[in-house]
Amino acid sequence: MIILNKKFFLMMISILTLSFLLAACGGGDEEEGTEDTGDDTATEETDEGGEEAAGDFEEDSWQFVTEELQGEVQYEYAAEFANRISEKTGGAITVEPLEYGALGSEVDQAQLLQQGGVELAVMSPGFTGGQVPDGQIFSLHYFFPSDQEQVQEVLTNSEALNQDLRAKYEEHSISPLSFWTEGAMAWSSNVGIESPSDWEGLNMRVQESPLMRETYDAYGATVQSLSWGELYQALDRETVDAQENPIFFIESASFHEVQDTVTISNHNNYVAMTTANTDWYNGLDDNVKAVVDETVEEMQDWVFDEQKAQNEAGLEAIEADSENETKIIELDEDQIAEFREVAEPVHQYYRDEVEGIDPAIFDKLQEEIAEIMGE
Ligand code: 6CS
């Protein structure tokens, strides 16, 4: 029996309906959101008595697209960002957070941002792995720390990421203003993954990142790229056998309903980027850019707490779901060592063989990680 997932169903309808909208936006909307709105200036008072400050901002509205649904980390990030921008500009600038599906799939959304059809997006590097090969560094297994506080520290402070990798994305009109974790990745499957050999013959869902193929190849699995909106049904029909995501997302997308096991593997982290269209961002008035930068910086702690709370609640919800029993497997150190042994040669393969990547970014990031881990 096919179990229809309600969220999935609603999303697919909205993707189909709005694919027309995406086609209409293609390349033609560079000016959207940057339009001259006339002489309107805001005069509303802020809590801090900020009438003067508000007057410094011209009225404007921006769209902030995310790859997740209301209540999930990315969307809540955009909503909180919107509140803060409104407050700091005395209501002059409004930001509209958009759910996954509102403007197409993750790949469509990335294209929209690049074309200037939206100003801001939360983007996962996995969906532009073909265009920006250096972004695939986030899909290496056992490369980043497993401690999420250390991961967030690396993502927030790394020069390799926030300067060098950012410049690579900017060649494609994507300005990553920050990188942040949505939590440690876990695997779900029906077989119960406890050692690399358990992957033998499994078909794994991945994002649009060629390196992910290499990684799962090393374990003996095949891979298939899919948008997450198609994943529940693919797992249910067993055209795909396994997937990876942070626990909160496995629960909220209901993947655990159609998978028997979840493996806490800590093999890597779900990294998201707060991105802006590069021309739009560079064209902002200095005072507006300062407010954006300040807000992005503040959001690093906020989103860390948000993902932590959602991941904890997600695990509890999976454990409490007696209608869909899920076996939780937590890998011990010996089991992790087995996975590391297979995964680590892919690090060198990435550094030395993957076309288009800058090995200097890899080397610098590796040093920065070692420093934060006190090695
Ligand atoms: O698996 C995915 O593709 C989705 N996972 C998360 C945690 N956020 C959005 C993304 O598209």
Classify the beta-strand content into a percent band.
15-25%
Question: Which H/E pattern describes the elements?
Answer: HHEHEHEHHEEHEHEHEEHHEHH
Rounded mean pLDDT score: 89
Number of strands: 10
Unique ligands: ligand 6CS
How many alpha or pi helices?
13
Nearest-angstrom radius of gyration?
21 Å
The CATH class is: Alpha Beta
Which regions are unreliable across 5 or more consecutive residues at pLDDT < 50? 15-52
Percent range of helical residues: 40-55%
Distance, first to last CA: 52 Å
CATH architecture tag: 3-Layer(aba) Sandwich
Count of the separate structural domains: 1
- Give me the CATH fold name: D-Maltodextrin-Binding Protein, domain 2
Summing up helix and strand content along with how strands pair, one would put the structural category as alpha/beta
Largest sheet: 8 strands, mixed
CATH homologous superfamily designation: Bacterial extracellular solute-binding protein, family 7
| Overall 3D shape | globular
Please tell me about this protein's structure:
Helix content is 46%, strand content 17%. The chain has 375 residues and is of the alpha/beta class. The protein has a single domain, classed as Bacterial extracellular solute-binding protein, family 7 (D-Maltodextrin-Binding Protein, domain 2), CATH 3.40.190.170. Strands 1, 2, 3, 4, 7, 8, 9 and 10 form an eight-stranded mixed β-sheet that branches. A two-stranded parallel sheet has the order 5-6. The longest helix is centred in the last third of the chain and has 35 residues. The protein is globular. The N and C termini lie far apart (52 Å). About 10% of the residues have low confidence. The protein binds ligand 6CS. Ligand 6CS binds next to strand 7.
